[in-house]
Amino acid sequence: MASKDKIIVNKPIYVKALMSKTAGSIVEAALKRDPHEAEFIQLVQEAVHALERVIAKNTQ
């Protein structure tokens, strides 16, 4: 018999940011999650910049 309890999964902040599909929110989420990781933040900024047109197109 299957359990009737609902499983609640909290998504990490970066997943929520990606789902909102704005470049600024992606970078902001990375800064909140790992503010001490300068190289990681730089990588996120570069990746978001490279994908900015795709992100903007998908928000419309």
Automatic annotation (TrEMBL):
Record-level GO cellular component terms = cytosol
One of the GO biological process terms: glutamate biosynthetic process
Q: Name one GO molecular function term.
A: glutamate dehydrogenase (NADP+) activity
UniProt superkingdom = Eukaryota
**Protein's name according to its UniProt entry:** NADP-specific glutamate dehydrogenase
